[in-house]
Write a structure and sequence with these properties.
alpha+beta; 24% helix; 49% strand
Length: 463
């Protein structure tokens, strides 16, 4: 009997000892995440200034492509007793002269003249072939994204003096031909203006470039994130001809969005773009981009931050084995799987904020979730001490420098001789990123970053 009592006493002591040395289990209720899909985020309006430069040589090339063969045909003799056909004989040469465009056009002309009187049929006709150049002087301006010119004939130069054979003799008729040309000079100049206008209509080209820039760009295959730019207004200043090139300033007002998940649809519509002429624009880019961290990625980073760290109070201690993050009602929920004097999961909540010096996301006003605090009061009051909570706060932070570098890296290809279409080249620079704000979604932490810079567009080598 004594042995039985002793055995029971030993077993009770062992059970008591085991219960005293075993970690306590904590089972706090999990705060369920908010669900606020779809995940589309619109930043503040961005402005992109794009100075445009077009060498006069490019206008010359386009003009020669559009302006060839027979360029003038007057087959009616009854109005002025003259028929005339004019062919472009060689390449047109453009130069700058006093802020205007001077065009030298090699021409071959066929002229049929009727002279004499119709009285009793006393009249005759002669055909004349001419070879020379005509020089035009054109004032240029940009109107509705089209380069328009107002040209006038400045000079005639003949390779050979125009002449006609009468009764076997060659008779110079320059004095007849030149006044005749002056009669038609407005018509010929108009043909030059039409050719320039046709070959330098930038509107379709500009809209085509905008359509390509509006195509969503995948910024991270791992995070399934896409960058989308939606233009709303397009500005342009008057064109200026100087130093052998035509220059103007274009400005683009747009919204920039970051979308996580499926590839978004390009919603760009050419007809909805508002075109506005302006006198002046700021020479810089003002853009807001988004650096995305999924909760999975942020949780993985924070878990690494906690690795190897022990949090203690007296003889009691715990180690964080895993961290999970999600959002609930605009707050970040931090779930810490702990092991040691207490096993289980505790939940903290706080508001995301940003440290400009360290470029880190941290959580301000971090505290235990109410349900967790209640559980800890009963089972592990020592965890509520400010010392341990402050250690949690210090460790619950992670750098987004990599995200910022990635955002800048994704934009740089647009600024390094980027060619959205043949003959159009975009170059520019970006300054450092400045933090704007943090937003929480059901799948990611979005850090909005502002940046500025410069951009220019050169048009050369169009088809």
């Amino acid at each position: 009997m004594k042995n039985i009592v002793l055995l029971i006493a030993v077993l009770a002591a062992l059970m008591l000892l085991a219960s005293c040395s075993s970690p306590k289990k904590i089972e706090a209720s999990r705060p369920e995440p908010s669900n606020n899909t779809p995940m589309v985020y619109e930043t503040t309006t961005s402005f992109i200034n794009m100075p445009v430069e077009i060498p006069l040589k490019e206008i010359e090339n386009q003009l020669n492509k559009a302006f060839s063969g027979l360029i003038y045909n007057d087959s009616t003799m009854t109005d002025d007793k003259t028929e005339m056909k004019i062919w472009k004989q060689g390449p047109i040469k453009l130069t700058e002269k006093g802020g205007k465009i001077e065009s030298v056009v090699p021409l071959k002309m066929w002229v049929k003249l009727k002279y004499g009187t119709d009285f009793m049929g006393l009249n005759d006709t002669r055909e004349i072939n001419l070879d020379g150049t005509i020089t035009f002087l054109s004032e240029a301006k940009l109107s509705n994204w089209k380069l328009t010119t107002s040209s006038s004939i400045e000079d005639f130069n003949w390779n050979e003096s125009p002449s006609i054979v009468v009764s076997g003799k060659s008779i110079p008729i320059t004095y007849i031909v030149n006044p005749t040309l002056r009669i038609f000079k407005s018509k010929i100049a108009k043909k030059i203006d039409e050719a320039i206008s046709k070959s330098t209509d930038f509107k379709p080209m500009v809209l085509s470039v905008l359509e390509k820039l509006s195509t969503p760009l995948q910024t991270s295959e791992q995070y399934e994130s896409w960058f989308k730019m939606t233009p709303s207004e397009l500005y342009v200043t008057d064109a200026v001809l100087s130093k052998g090139k035509i220059s103007m300033d274009m400005g683009l007002k747009c919204n920039m969005q970051t979308i996580v998940g499926q590839q978004p649809v390009n919603t760009f519509k050419k007809e909805s773009i508002v075109l506005k002429p302006v006198t002046k624009m700021p020479n810089k880019i003002e853009a807001t981009v988004a650096a995305i961290s999924t909760y999975e990625t942020a949780s993985r980073i924070l878990t690494k931050n906690f690795q190897g760290q022990t949090f203690s109070s007296g003889k009691r201690k715990i180690t964080v084995q895993k961290v999970d993050l999600w959002q609930k009602d605009s707050k970040m929920i931090v779930a810490l799987d702990i092991h040691g004097s207490i096993d289980g999961t505790i939940y903290l909540s706080g508001y995301p904020s940003y440290n400009h010096v360290t470029k880190e996301i941290y959580f301000d006003q971090m505290d235990y979730v109410l349900n967790t605090k209640g559980i800890l009061t009963k089972t592990a009051n020592w965890l509520l001490s400010g010392i341990i909570l402050n250690k949690f706060r210090e460790t619950c932070r992670y750098s987004i420098k990599g995200n910022l570098d990635e955002a800048k890296k994704n934009l740089l290809p647009y600024l390094t001789n980027y060619s959205p279409m043949k003959g159009v080249f975009v170059n520019g620079t970006l300054n450092d990123f400045e933090f704007d704000k943090v937003e929480l979604t059901d799948k990611a932490i979005i850090a909005f970053i502002k940046t500025s810079g410069q951009m220019n567009v050169k048009i050369e080598g169009l088809d």
